[in-house]
Design goal:
By secondary structure, the protein is of the alpha+beta class. Among the domains are: about 5-120, no CATH class; about 360-610, 3-Layer(aba) Sandwich (Rossmann fold), CATH 3.40.50. Helix content is about 15%, strand content about 35%. Strands 6, 7, 8, 9, 10, 11, 12 and 13 form an eight-stranded antiparallel sheet that branches. Strands 30-31-33-32-34-35-36-37 form an eight-stranded mixed sheet, sandwiched between helices. Helix 2 packs antiparallel against helix 3 and helix 7 runs antiparallel to helix 10.
Length: about 625
C-alpha cells in the first residue's frame, strides 16, 4: 500500500526552534494556544525534498520552507497579520503565497525565494483583488481573482499574465492537469451560485468539456490524475443526496462512481503517484478517516490510524502517506506512514499542548421532525454547569472532533460547551445543507435553541447562566439569536459577525455578495422584507443579554461599518455591551491576539454571570 522507504521523522531545525514560544509560564488554557502547530507540508512537484508549511512557532502563523535533504527550515514571511497558506513552485526554487493588506484578503499571489528574500508578484500585470485560486505547473500557472467589476482567470507564462476568462458570476481556478494542457474551473454560469459545477478549458480559455447533474446539484473538482497526458479528473458529486466521489474522463465524458458502501460523506485527499488509486477521506458524525480506493478493481480499503480524526493528508511520490491526526482531547500532529513505520514527521519544539476534555457525541430533536447531531464537552464535577453554546461559522461548514483551544478554555473555566451541527452544516447530506436556501437564520437558531433546551431539561445546564457565542456566521446567529430569542440567553459573545445585513451586503467582497444573493434569493432591493427580518439590527431593541462584540478593522467578509451600526443601536437602547476592534481581518493568526480575545470573553461573561474569570 505504501512505499518501502522508511519514514524519516525529523524534528524542526535550529532556525525553527529559535522561534518556538515558551508556554510553561502560562495557565493550561493559554498553553494550548501557544503550543507549536504545523500545517501539512506541500512539496515541489519536480523537487520533492523542497517543501513549504505554515506554523505559529513565531507567535503569528507564518510561512516556512523546508529543505528535507539538509533538514533546513527557513522562515519566509513576517507579516504582522500572518500567512495561512503557501506552496513551492514546481522547480522548488521559490514559494508562492497570497499577500494581502493587513488581513483584508485583497492582494496578489507573490513568490519568495526558497531560502528567503524579497517577494515579487507572480503576475505583476494583474491588479490586486480577492484570490480566486492558484494552480502551478512547470509549463504555466493559472490564477483566479475577483474585484468589484467581476471575476477572471489568467494564465501566467514566462512572467507574463494573459486573461483568458472574464465573467460577471463567480468563477475560480480548480486546477491544471499534470501536463498543464487542461484547466478545471469552478463556475456558476448556470445561475446557481450556491451549487457551482465544473468546466474544463484549454490554456486559451476555449471550453473543452463541462459536467453537470442539473439544477441544485454541486459538482466540485477534486484533483487531476498526476500522470502527464491523463485527462482523468476526480470530482465530488451530490445528486444521490450526499457527497460522493467520481472519476470523470474529460476527453470522453465517461464517469465512474467510486462507491465505498459507507454512510456519511466522502472527499478526495489526493491520488497515488501512478494514478492507480485515490486517497479518500470518509466523514461521518464528526470523525474523518482515510481509505485507499483502487481504480482498477473499484475496491476501497480502510487505512487504520487509531482513535482520532484526520485533518489533512497526501501521498508522497515514494508512496508514503503524510497526514495530520488529532482528536477533541489531543492536539494535532503531522505524521508519516509507510509499510515499516508510522512516526511524527515534524516534532514541535517547546512544551506540548496540555490534553483537553474529550467531546461526547449526542443527538437531540429539533421540534421540526429532525435530529441534530452535536458535540458536548463537560468540565469535572457534577452538573448542572454554566453552558456555552458554540455556534460554528460557515454556514456551510461543520464541527468535527478536532482539538479546539477556545472550547477547552471554556471547559477549564467550569463551562459545559455545546457545539451543534445545525441545519445548513455540511457533512450530513444535501437536504440538511440546503435547508437555509430562502430561509437563512431561522433553521439554524431553531436547532441551536433545541440543544440549549435539551441540556436544561437533562439537568446538565444551568438555565440562568447560558451563553450564546460564535464567529462569522456563528457571530451572525449569536446576534440574531439574542434578538429573536431574548429570554433564552444570559449573555453573548459575537466575533466578526454579520450585524446589519443590508450594510454588510453593500461593503462585502463580490463573491460574498453573490453568495448572499443565492442564499436570500435576491439582493436587498429584491428581497427587502427578508433581509430586514433576518438582520440582527432589526431586533436590537429586544436584546436583554449583555453582549461582547469583537471584530476586525480590515474585515471584508463581515465589514466593520455594519458592526458599528449595530453597536450604535445597542447603545441607543441601553443594552449592556463591550465593543472590541483589533487590527486585522476576518480572524487573527496571532496567538497573543487569540488569547486576548478569549480572556476578554471569559472576563466579560464572569462580570455579568458570576462565573470564573480568565486564569492568568
Amino acid at each position: 500500500m505504501f512505499g518501502s522507504r522508511p519514514c524519516d521523522g525529523r524534528a524542526g531545525g535550529d532556525q525553527l526552534k529559535a522561534h518556538a514560544p515558551t508556554s510553561n509560564a502560562h495557565p493550561p488554557w493559554q498553553q494550548r494556544f501557544y503550543a507549536v502547530r504545523y500545517s501539512l507540508p506541500t512539496w515541489a512537484r519536480h523537487a520533492e525534498d523542497r517543501l513549504a508549511y505554515t506554523t505559529n512557532a513565531s507567535g503569528v502563523r507564518q510561512l516556512w520552507s523546508w529543505d528535507r535533504a539538509t533538514d533546513t527550515h527557513t522562515r519566509l514571511t513576517k507579516k504582522p497579520t500572518g500567512v495561512s497558506w503557501g506552496t513551492p513552485t514546481p522547480d522548488g526554487d521559490r514559494v508562492v503565497w497570497f499577500n494581502d493588506t493587513a488581513g483584508d484578503e485583497v492582494g496578489r499571489f507573490v513568490t519568495t525565494p526558497f531560502s528567503g528574500g524579497p517577494d515579487v508578484p507572480l503576475a505583476p500585470q494583474l491588479r490586486p483583488g480577492w484570490a480566486g485560486g492558484c494552480s502551478l505547473r512547470r509549463e504555466r500557472s493559472a490564477v483566479g481573482r475577483a474585484d468589484p467589476d467581476g471575476f477572471s482567470i489568467a494564465i501566467v507564462e514566462h512572467g507574463q499574465a494573459r486573461t483568458i476568462v472574464e465573467r460577471t458570476r463567480p468563477v475560480s481556478v480548480a486546477g491544471l492537469s499534470a501536463d498543464a494542457e487542461l484547466l478545471a474551473l469552478a463556475h456558476t454560469e448556470h445561475g446557481d451560485v450556491l451549487h457551482p459545477t465544473v468546466e474544463v478549458v484549454d490554456p486559451d480559455g476555449a471550453r473543452v468539456a463541462d459536467i453537470s447533474d442539473g439544477p441544485g446539484n454541486t459538482i466540485e473538482a477534486a484533483g487531476w490524475s498526476p500522470v502527464p497526458g491523463d485527462a482523468r479528473l476526480a470530482v465530488i458529486t451530490e445528486q444521490r443526496g450526499r457527497r460522493e466521489v467520481e472519476v470523470w474522463e474529460v476527453r470522453t465524458g465517461e464517469r465512474t462512481r467510486c462507491g465505498t458502501g459507507l454512510p456519511g460523506d466522502v472527499d478526495v485527499e489526493g491520488w497515488w503517484p501512478d494514478g492507480s488509486a485515490l486517497l479518500l477521506a470518509h466523514e461521518h458524525l464528526g470523525q474523518r478517516s482515510l481509505l485507499r480506493h483502487d481504480l482498477r478493481n473499484g475496491h476501497s480499503s480502510p487505512i487504520p490510524l487509531g482513535a482520532g480524526t484526520v485533518s489533512a493528508a497526501s501521498v508522497r511520490p515514494d508512496g508514503s502517506l503524510w497526514y495530520v491526526f488529532e482528536s477533541s482531547s489531543r492536539p494535532p500532529t503531522v505524521r508519516c506512514r509507510c509499510d515499516t513505520s508510522d512516526v511524527p514527521l515534524l516534532t514541535p519544539a517547546g512544551d506540548p499542548a496540555p490534553d483537553g476534555v474529550a467531546y461526547q457525541s449526542l443527538h437531540y430533536a429539533n421540534g421540526e421532525g429532525d435530529d441534530v447531531h452535536a458535540f458536548l464537552a463537560r468540565p469535572a464535577g457534577p452538573p448542572p454547569y454554566p453552558l456555552y453554546v458554540d455556534v460554528h461559522g460557515g454556514p456551510h461548514w461543520h464541527v468535527s472532533e478536532t482539538f479546539d483551544p477556545f472550547v477547552q478554555a471554556w471547559v477549564d473555566h467550569g463551562f459545559a460547551v455545546l457545539i451543534p451541527n445545525y441545519r445548513g452544516s455540511t457533512g450530513y447530506g444535501k437536504r440538511w445543507q440546503d435547508a437555509l436556501e430562502g430561509d437563512p437564520g431561522r433553521p439554524e437558531l431553531t436547532d441551536v435553541l433545541a440543544g440549549r433546551d435539551h441540556l436544561v431539561e437533562a439537568g446538565i445546564a444551568e438555565e440562568d447562566r447560558i451563553v450564546l457565542g460564535g464567529g462569522s456566521w456563528g457571530g451572525y446567529l449569536t446576534l440574531q439569536g439574542i434578538g429573536t430569542q431574548p429570554e433564552a440567553w444570559s449573555a453573548a459573545v459575537a466575533i466578526v459577525p454579520v450585524a446589519d445585513y443590508v450594510a454588510a451586503y453593500e461593503d462585502e467582497s463580490p463573491g460574498l455578495q453573490e453568495f448572499d444573493r443565492g442564499l436570500f434569493g435576491g439582493t436587498p432591493d429584491d428581497r427587502e422584507d427578508l433581509f430586514r427580518e433576518r438582520s440582527p439590527i432589526t431586533y436590537a431593541d429586544r436584546v436583554r443579554a449583555p453582549v461582547l462584540i469583537i471584530t476586525g478593522a480590515n474585515d471584508t467578509r463581515c465589514p466593520k461599518r455594519q458592526v458599528d451600526n449595530y453597536v450604535a443601536a445597542l447603545q441607543k437602547h441601553g443594552v449592556p455591551h463591550h465593543y472590541e476592534v483589533y487590527e486585522a481581518g476576518h480572524g487573527s493568526m496571532a496567538i497573543a491576539e487569540n488569547v486576548r480575545h478569549q480572556a476578554l470573553s471569559l472576563d466579560f461573561v464572569a462580570e455579568h454571570l458570576g462565573t470564573e474569570p480568565a486564569q492568568r
